[in-house]
Automatic annotation (TrEMBL), chain A:
Its main location: membrane. Residues 70-234 form the NarG-like domain. Keywords: Cell membrane, Electron transport, Membrane, Oxidoreductase, Transmembrane, Transmembrane helix, Transport. It is a multi-pass membrane protein. GO terms for biological process: anaerobic electron transport chain. This is Nitrate reductase gamma subunit. The keyword Methyltransferase does not apply. GO terms for molecular function: electron transfer activity; heme binding; nitrate reductase activity. GO terms for cellular component: plasma membrane. It is found in: Cell membrane. The chain crosses the membrane at residues 6-26, 70-87, 107-126, 138-156, 193-216. InterPro entries: Heme-iron_electron_transfer, NarG-like_domain, NarG-like_sf.
Automatic annotation (TrEMBL), chain B:
Keywords: 4Fe-4S, Electron transport, Iron, Iron-sulfur, Metal-binding, Transport. GO terms for molecular function: 4 iron, 4 sulfur cluster binding; metal ion binding; oxidoreductase activity. The keyword Nucleotidyltransferase does not apply. This is Fe-S oxidoreductase. It comes from Desulfacinum infernum DSM 9756. The keyword Membrane does not apply. Residues 19-49, 87-118 form the 4Fe-4S ferredoxin-type domain.
From TrEMBL, chain C:
This is TusA-related sulfurtransferase. It comes from Desulfacinum infernum DSM 9756. Keywords: Transferase. Pfam families: TusA. GO terms for molecular function: transferase activity. The keyword Transferase applies. InterPro entries: TusA-like, TusA-like_sf. Belongs to the sulfur carrier protein TusA family. Residues 10-78 form the UPF0033 domain. The keyword Repeat does not apply.
């Protein structure tokens, strides 16, 4: 069993990041090497400066706010939560003064960030079961939401256990040892992580996260990188 | 479908995969925000009329042949093989889309469904499954470009016959002056009309009233190559006019009231020694410069204006028609929602050119347009596109709107103070 | 008038919007037999270039064109 744990926590993590990074870069380069569209694709009336409006379209999603406010609320909550989760994970490497502008205890968000993400994901999933969104959905849409939900729920459970139920075997120090060992290519998994009662949660969290990273470059999640350039096309 | 045909079609598909197209195909998250964007869906709420659904029909074939997932795990993205049946689906998707790009205003990414549909249209052309009549019309236009010398005499005679009507109606001084000049080298402006007299006579009246140094093109403006989605033919049809403009050394090419023609000429002709303008822009300019005067009392009752999608949302001509209308009426009624969200008339993308064949669909799918027009309470419905005009006229009849559907140029010509 | 070719079918296309004259003629030509004559009446000068170009593309033949009193009469022989 612990061999499997180890495989998920070390070699699979390396594999996942390799696929994610190389895959994303190769795909981006391939697309950037295709010829530009010969004509403008903007819609009018044109607003200047176009790049500023493209940024606002990308990060504030005004069209969603206008046509589906409830979806917009969940989209903002979800994407905001994802951003905080990324920050939270960076802080599992070490302290960053920048992130501590608002002083907080690692992991950021008092456990509410993961909860927000999980609830948003459930909303996204359940709205896909009803028409008309159901009619335009393909299997990928469900797989990705379920995969993300599983990743978030197992990740958050560890945070919740520490914060709300005083479970203190697996702490920030253990994560820092583990993650630093990975990033310095001297992999070492502390006993707290491999042998504690909550190890299976961490392993499942990492397992689903690995799969997500490996699917990322080949799925619609690439909208992370494409949203801005594609919005720029509309703004001219 | 045999392997050779499929390979040929996939080659065509590949030819469309430039950077923008790849973004459009890769980025959609199927969030469903576009659901209510399409006038067809609003009039007939069926999933197949949702923009994302239409696009997904093309995207599934893309996943099958141009993405690893289509080979490794086709069911993941529901990748689809290119078969005869797939072609039928592509046909239905492409020819129930008018290319108005209203969905683009809704999409959080700004995905251009019209552009994705251009893949569907090109595949249909490649499989000889496109609407035959559109190809015939495109070929006719190209033929005309090849052998213009052959037809010249007849055309000049036909134009001569129209001149008299212009002179009579507008009491213009015609002595020693050509009322409808053709083939004039060194003219300032080349006017590209449609085949119909209604597209030439009023325009001629306005040009002459404004003292424009103009010349009429031998060719009709409309580009059926664009309607049928054939890039080669689109270019050939466009080049006839570009070459004529260069030969005559004109400074400006003015496109008549035809949405497709304007957008294709404006955006696809590339850098040329001449400017491209729509006749609406030119008329607005004449008014602004005081070169023509209009009589406001000529038209009675409230007036509304339908923005042709290819001219307004996709071409940027929004202020000019409104400026002209200020000089034609004191009771102008803007449609709601505003031009950015204006509904397509329901006749774009070649549907009007397909005539009675598409009439039933056009009437049913444009119910929201009819309602939008009706809500203004206007008596006169003006527009600046032949396609829209035909469709609006059909809607007027079908939904018994009791409106007077007018070309904006005709209104300008009729209200001229000479 | 009297010296005009006798048509087997006459179509009134006067004042139709673009591109209906050509669309209607392509349909109308199918309603006469090969070798018979279709007469299209129009007022649009564009037809004077459109119809010959269409005839070449579709393999039919314009046998005569008469312009009188502002009306253009085009006589088309069905060849295919």
């Amino acid at each position: 069993m612990h061999t499997i744990y180890y495989l998920v926590l070390v070699p699979m993590v390396y594999a996942a990041f390799a696929v994610f990074i190389v895959g994303s870069i190769v795909r981006m380069i391939k697309i950037l090497r295709t010829p530009k569209h010969p004509t403008t694709l903007q819609i009018f009336p044109k607003k200047e400066p176009a790049w500023l409006h493209a940024l606002s379209d990308t990060f504030l999603m005004p069209t969603v706010l206008k046509h589906n406010p409830l979806l917009w609320v969940f989209l903002v909550l979800f994407h905001g939560a994802v951003l905080l989760l990324v920050i939270g994970h960076l802080e599992l490497f070490s302290d960053f003064a920048l992130f501590q502008i608002i002083p907080h205890e690692v992991f950021i968000g008092k456990g509410l960030v993961g909860l927000t993400a999980a609830v948003s994901l459930l909303y996204f999933l359940f709205r896909r079961f009803t028409s008309p969104v159901r009619d335009i959905s393909v299997a990928e849409d469900y797989y990705l939401l379920i995969l993300l939900f599983l990743t978030v729920i197992f990740g958050s459970e560890m945070d919740w256990a520490r914060r709300w139920y005083d479970y203190d075997v697996m702490g920030v120090d253990a994560y820092r040892t583990y993650l630093w060992s990975l990033i310095t290519f001297q992999p070492q998994v502390p006993d707290e992580i491999l042998f504690s009662g909550h190890s299976f949660m961490l392993v499942l969290h990492v397992f689903f996260a690995n799969i997500f990273l490996m699917v990322f470059p080949f799925s619609k999640i690439m909208h992370t990188f494409f949203a801005l350039p594609v919005n720029k096309l509309r703004r001219g | 479908m045999d392997a050779k045909t499929r390979d040929d079609l996939l080659q065509l598909f590949q030819s469309k995969l430039n950077r923008a197209m790849t973004y459009y195909l890769e980025t959609c998250t199927r969030c469903g925000v576009c659901t209510t964007a399409c006038h067809v869906y609003q009039s007939m709420p069926q999933a197949k009329y949702i923009a994302a659904y239409r696009a997904e029909i093309v995207r599934r074939i893309y996943k099958k042949y141009f993405k690893g997932q289509g080979k490794v795990w086709p069911s993941y993205g529901e990748a689809k093989e290119l078969t005869e049946m797939a072609l039928e689906e592509l046909y239905e998707a492409a020819y129930s889309c008018t290319g108005c790009r209203r969905c683009m205003v809704y999409c959080p990414f700004g995905i251009d469904t019209q552009m994705i549909m251009s893949i569907a249209k090109l595949l249909l052309v490649g499989a000889h499954a496109e609407p035959e009549i559109l190809t015939l019309l495109a070929d006719t236009s190209i033929e005309k470009g090849k052998s213009i010398e052959f037809f010249k005499e007849g055309f000049l005679q036909g134009v001569k016959n129209l001149e008299q009507q212009v002179v009579e109606k507008w009491k213009l001084e015609a002595e020693g002056k050509t009322v409808i000049p053709v083939d004039v080298e060194g003219a300032d402006l080349l006017y590209v009309a449609l085949a119909g007299a209604h597209s030439i006579i009023p325009a001629a009246a306005v040009f002459n009233a404004a003292g424009e140094n103009w010349t009429l093109s031998f060719f009709e403006a409309v580009n059926f190559g664009a309607f049928v989605g054939d890039p080669t033919k689109t270019k050939l049809i466009l080049d006839r006019i570009v070459n004529e403009a260069k030969r005559l050394k004109v400074k400006e090419v003015c496109i008549c009231e035809c949405g497709t023609a304007y957008r294709v000429m404006k955006q696809l002709s590339g850098k040329q020694p001449f400017e491209v303008s729509s006749v609406t822009e030119v008329h607005a300019r004449y008014i602004r410069e005081g070169r023509i005067k209009l009589d406001k009392s000529r038209f009675q009752g409230p007036v509304t204006y339908h923005d042709p999608c290819q001219i307004a949302r996709n071409g940027g001509i929004l202020e000019e028609p409104r400026y002209i209308l200020q000089h034609l009426t004191d009771d102008y009624r803007e449609m709601a929602p505003d031009p950015r969200y204006n509904y397509c008339c329901g006749g774009g993308g070649g549907l009007v050119a397909l005539g009675e064949e598409t009439l039933d669909f056009r009437m049913k799918s444009a119910r929201v347009k009819a309602e939008q027009v009706q809500k203004t309470g206007a008596a006169i419905l003006a527009t600046a596109c032949e396609n829209c005009h035909t469709q609006l006229e059909n809607l007027n009849h079908h939904y018994k709107l009791g409106m007077n559907v007018q070309f904006l140029t005709s209104m300008v010509a009729d209200a001229l103070v000479i | 008038m009297s010296n005009a070719i006798q048509a087997d079918k006459v179509m009134d296309l006067k004042g139709l919007p673009c591109p209906m004259p050509v669309v209607k003629v392509s349909k109308g030509i199918k309603e006469v037999e090969v070798g018979q004559i279709l007469e299209a009446q129009t007022t649009d000068p564009g037809s004077l270039t459109d119809f010959p170009a269409w005839a070449r593309t579709s393999g039919n033949e314009i046998v005569d064109t008469i312009q009188e009193n502002g009306v253009i009469r085009i006589f088309i022989k069905r060849n295919v």
